[in-house]
Write a structure and sequence with these properties.
InterPro entries: AA/rel_permease1, CAT_C. This is Cationic amino acid transporter 1-like. By secondary structure, the protein is an all-alpha fold. It has a domain of 373 residues: Amino acid/polyamine transporter I, CATH 1.20.1740. 67% of the residues lie in helices and 2% in strands. It is built from 22 helices and four strands. The strands form two sheets. It has a two-stranded antiparallel ribbon with strand order 1-4. A two-stranded antiparallel sheet has the order 2-3. The longest helix has 43 residues. The chain is globular. The N terminus and C terminus are likely disordered.
Length: 598
């Protein structure tokens, strides 16, 4: 990846893959690669502590895409992208499942708890998106505050969430399409008996939908926005119909007779699952690079979309529980069956149509968001840099969009994804927790300015906040298993309160936000850490095993490829910065670099 200031044999490798899939120095020959592998330890120490600068992410790293993305989005676009990203098929399936099996009518409280957790994360994402308006989203934020290594682990889980989640939605799209036509979903799938049972139902319709959505996402971000909010408006009209028609068949006794039959345990267990229904809003933060006025548009867009989404979810949950006793709710098609039981069989087609529209917008926003994540990751050379290319005429990340669409389409074609919903929730809760930690680091620590004593106090507070959150989740798990009581919570929650209070009063802030900041610092980010970890404690052990396997695969890739490519790219960028200062006649060539190693 080296660049020569004076020509000669130097090759500039920004914005293209002219030097191969991995054009960096470490991959120019097998001997060079062997030397790089022998230096894995020192390079890992370097990248684990390397933190990028805001200016580097916004300028130099973004410049590796060649062309700029077009700034065409406003707060109106972001609100509709947020609604389109979040309100999908989940509300039409998960509500019935959790009401019947976990929470009863108190599922509305479960939605509220998940919504509060999501809103706390929205606040953290909003401040970062304003300060660092680039396509990388949480990857860029973590790279600036927690370093390359943690950013890569988060990035791998984000891409997993988008890819598998998109495939699951695409297969659901086929199911609801079949319902509209009075067919069984498998009528539109090709059965291949020679394949394993979980992979034997090939879904060509899902593949076609994913590729068509990819085409929309590639052609124009603004055009995708317009298409999205037209579909989202139609979707909201269907939701209004469900609410109004459902209330005409409502019975208050269904809601109040046994509001929380499974107690607090059921409410929080349902919240962990229902959090999946809120996944997607982080895709909006990746559009900051294409927003006309990030300081104004992003807070309105993100907070407005999440507020509306939470309200819609809670209202729909109440309506469902008013229409039927929770014990009679169908876990697979709750609203359709509820309308049929109420003598309105025709309404199930409207419900299926609404779900279909919702899934289409989720796929569209997912395609836009996941491509921007991958684009910024490729700008750092952790994955092949050709994926960072922005098409000069369209102003969209063409290669990244196509790559993610192909991966999603392959999974959607073969795989039954029922077992992976909890894995997706683990990935998302883990990343949201890291973003909250990164925000506290950003506000309380600045390299070269924060004293060692204050840095150590910050580290101790963060460790105490996370440890007390983990202990609370462990106590909750023991309570669910039938052991323990409520006394341990008095210790763990008190420890969390004490750590957060000390952070507020005993550690000076090192930085203030330029335009908009998270209110009630440090309480809201600390609460986000607490709730995300608590919800993680409600997810089954088998899902954590799968999460561990995926993380191990990420680490293997990172140690073999990503570490060495990003190390070479960072060193080349620092060398170019030094060369530029020398050419400008700078008197202090050892001054602050664009990429600093702390």
């Amino acid at each position: 990846m080296a660049a020569s200031a004076g020509g000669g044999d130097g090759v500039r490798r920004r914005g293209c893959c002219g030097g191969g899939l991995f054009p960096e120095e470490s991959f120019r020959s097998w001997s060079a690669y062997g030397r790089a592998l022998l230096e894995t330890g020192p390079r890992l120490r370097d990248r684990a502590t390397a933190r990028s600068l805001d200016s580097a992410e916004v300028n130099e790293v973004r410049g590796r895409s060649g062309a700029d993305m077009k700034r065409t989005l406003t707060w109106w676009d972001l609100i509709w992208f947020g609604i389109g990203a979040v309100i999908g098929a989940g509300i039409f399936v998960l509500t019935g499942q959790e009401a019947k099996e976990a929470a009863g009518p108190a599922v509305v409280v479960s939605y509220a708890v998940s919504g509060v957790s999501a809103m706390l994360s929205v606040f953290c994402y909003t401040e970062f998106a304003i300060e660092i308006p680039v396509a990388g989203g949480s990857f860029a934020y973590l790279r600036v505050e927690l370093g390359d290594f943690m950013a890569f682990i988060a990035a791998g889980n984000i891409l997993l969430e988008y890819c598998i989640g998109g495939a699951a939605v695409a297969r659901s799209w086929t199911s609801y399409f079949a319902t509209l036509l009075d067919h069984h979903p498998n009528d539109f799938r090709v059965h291949v008996p020679s394949l394993s049972e979980d992979y034997s139902r090939l879904d060509p319709i899902a593949v076609a939908v994913v590729l068509l959505i990819c085409l929309f996402a590639v052609l124009s971000t603004k055009g995708s926005s317009r298409f999205n909010y037209v579909l989202s408006i139609v979707h909201l009209v269907v939701i209004v119909f469900i609410v109004v028609a459902g209330l005409t068949r409502a019975k208050a006794a269904n809601l109040t007779a046994d509001f929380a039959p499974f107690g607090a345990r059921g409410i929080f267990a349902a919240s962990a699952v229902l959090f999946f229904a809120y996944i997607g809003f982080d895709a909006v933060s990746t559009m900051a690079e294409e927003t006309r006025n990030p300081a104004r548009d992003i807070p309105i867009g993100l907070v407005g979309a999440m507020t509306l989404t939470t309200a819609v979810y809670c209202v729909l949950a109440v309506v469902l529980c008013l229409m039927q006793p929770y014990s009679e709710i169908d876990p697979d098609a709750p609203f359709s069956v509820a309308f049929t039981a109420a003598g309105m069989d025709w309404a199930k087609y409207i419900v299926a149509f609404g779900a279909l529209k919702g899934m289409t917008t989720v796929l569209l926003v997912s395609a836009v968001g996941q491509a921007r994540y991958l684009t910024h990751i490729a700008r750092t050379h952790m994955v092949p840099p050709c994926l960072a290319q922005v098409h000069p005429r369209l102003g969209t990340p063409l290669n990244a969009t196509v790559a993610m669409a192909l991966a999603t389409a392959v999974i959607a074609l073969f795989t039954d994804l029922g077992i992976l919903s909890n894995l997706l929730s683990i990935s998302t809760l883990f990343i949201f927790m890291l973003v909250a930690v990164a925000l506290l680091v950003r506000r309380y620590y600045v390299a070269g300015e924060t004293s060692a004593a204050d840095r150590n106090k910050l580290a101790a507070c963060l460790a105490a906040i996370m440890a007390s959150s983990v202990a609370t989740a462990a106590c909750w798990g023991a309570t669910i298993a039938g052991g323990g009581g409520w006394v341990p919570y008095a210790v763990t929650v008190a420890a969390w309160l004490a750590a957060t209070l000390f952070l507020q009063c005993g550690v000076p802030k090192a930085r203030a936000p330029k335009t908009w900041g998270v209110p009630l610092l440090p309480w809201l980010p600390a609460a986000s850490i607490f709730i995300n970890i608590f919800l993680l404690g409600s997810i089954d052990a088998a899902s954590f095993v799968r999460f561990g396997v995926w993380t191990a695969a990420l680490l293997a890739y990172y140690f073999l490829f990503g570490l060495h490519a990003s190390y070479d790219a960072a060193k080349a960028l620092a060398a170019e910065a030094d060369a530029a200062r020398v050419e400008e006649g700078a008197r202090k060539p050892g001054g602050r670099q664009l990429i600093v190693m702390e």
